[in-house]
Each structure stands twice: as structure tokens, then as C-alpha cells.
Amino acid sequence: MSRIGKLPIPIPDGVKVVRDGEKIVVEGPKGRNEERIHPNMIVEIGEKEILVKRPDDHKFNRSLHGLTRSLIFNAVVGVTEGFKRKLLIEGVGYRAQMAGKALSLELGFSHKIEVPPPDKVTFETPSLTEIVVRGISKQAVGEIAAIIRAFRPPEPYKGKGVRYEGEHIIRKAGKAGSA
Q1: 76-134, pLDDT tens digit by residue?
Q2: Does the global pTM surpass 0.90?
Q3: For the packed helices 138-151 and 59-80, what is the interaxial angle rounded to 10 degrees?
Q4: Which domains does the chain carry?
């Protein structure tokens, strides 16, 4: 039995969970999330918890079991607490600012990079070198954070670029012959 899949998903107060065909719709104080689930999975929505079960022990159904439970759990957490990803910018002249709802990045190119926020995602810039990506969809928050990081990933010699908070960059030594 899947260790993750067999865990019940608690439904907090103020959250409404409804099954609509192949979709699970979760509504809460922060908004509404929809997750499409595979027809093989059995989802039982109770008063205070959700149980995900599988019909048999075929390998495909075993792999879907934990995945389905995690997707529904993330939807519930998203509408109650939300998700956040923090990015840090290092480098001389590198900075981030808000331009309306969009994010304007100066990362050493000859032009500014404008990043419009996707649905259910917002940007914040507490300082010129910090970006906070918030949203109710864990996938959307992680994806837009990865796109922003990909514009200028951190390089190993000076550490310049955009990195996640807490990410450790393995530094390399420079040229050895100049000593």
C-alpha cells in the first residue's frame, strides 16, 4: 500500500470539496482550484476528510495512488494557506521592480525583461534583489519561479544570477596560473 496514498486528506473549516466528473473542485478563502484525476482512482469525499483508493495493485494504479492524493492535498493547502517561492538576485546592476502587476527584471542584458503574472499568481518585490512569487497553485508558482530563474541562472565563478532562497551554489576557483 502506498504510504502517501493511504493518508487521509483533512478538510479544514471553510473549504468546500466537490467531485465534478473527472475533476475535483476545491474552493476556499483564497480562491478555487481544480484538479483533474484519473478515472481509475476512487476518491471518497467525507465530512471532514478525503480518502483516495485504488481499484487493484497493478503497477499503473499504484503509481497513480500517491500522485492523486498529493495533487488533491496541494489543492486544499493552496486555497487555505497558499504557496510561496522566494528568489534572490545577485550581481552588480541586477534588480527587480514591479511594473503594474508585471515584474520588470534588469539582469545585465541590453533590455529589461517583463514577466506578466499567470492566473492565480502574484509577484512581490520587498527589495530590489528579492522576488516573492505567491499563488494558490503549487505547480504554477514553481513553474513561473523556474522561468524567472532561467533568464539568468547563477554562475559558478562569482555566483551572479537569480537563485532560489536557500539554494547552495557550488563555487569554482578562477584561473590558477595568474598567481
Answers
A1: 999 999 999 999 999 999 999 999 999 999 999 999 999 999 988 999 999 999 999 99
A2: no
A3: 90
A4: 9-80 (3.90.930.12), 83-164 (3.90.930.12)
Instruction: Spell out the residues 6+ positions from residue 175 whose beta carbon is closer than 8 angstroms to its own.
Output: none
- % of the chain residues with pLDDT over 90: 86
User: Residue-wise over 134-154: b if at least 16 C-beta within 10 A, else e?
Assistant: bbbbbebbebbbeebbeebeb
Block residue for cell numbers 493518508: 7
Bigger pLDDT: 146 or 4?
Answer: 146
**Which amino acid is located at 22 in the chain?**
E
HSE value, Cβ hemisphere, 13 Å, CA-based, for 175: 3
Cα distances (Å, whole numbers) of residue 69 to 77, 102, 106, 146: 12, 33, 40, 24
Per the DSSP assignment, residues forming a β-bridge with 164 are: 87
Three-state secondary-structure class, residue 139: helix
Largest Cα–Cα distance in the chain? 71
